[in-house]
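User:
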Amino acid sequence: MIEAAGASGVLVQGDVADAVAAEDLVKEAARKLGGCDIFVQSVVPPLAEIYEHVVSTEVPLAKWQLAFDIQARAFFVCARAAAKFMRGGGRMVALSYAPGARTGGWQPFVGMGPAKAALESISRYFAVALGRYGITVNTISPGCSDESTIYGQTPQEFQHALKEWVESGWTPMRRRSTPGDIADVCALLCSDEARFVTGQGITVDGGSSLMNPDFPLARQLPA
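Assistant: Predicted structure:
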């Protein structure tokens, strides 16, 4: 697809849950591409590998640890490696999920939620450390998506209920996000126009984070 669009691309493979392999992954890509201008982290494993209720009788320690390894630790390792290949500025973006990082209602997300919170925190530290080199570091928090690799693995009844929830008005724009919605914001953050934006978390959710769960939906929507 990249080549069809008139550009050149390379494919490298590795396991970001392994810190050494994650660093090697970035180095290999940078060598093949002749450097690194933009680094974007978007990692989601099969849902069964990280999805577990917090009070499960089978303590989900391995699943909890995996979530941190592929989110916070992977960004720490990969961003540090990518920065070494950036010359005269650069862009880093990590895909997060702010509601999971701040709330506790989606109980089986007990591993990924805290891992996303740590990811967002680490990105701010990198933003401060790399600012002097003209490198910006930001996070993007998508809303629920029809093509999300997380939601797409949930049961159909869950996805149907989510669709009804969104369309009823809990998302003011009354639709779920698309990959294009997220990609456009990512492209903006990676552009020269966003050269002075760093350490920020951008939410792309059609306004769902603006709604107040303390009040009935009918009391929040315009008449």
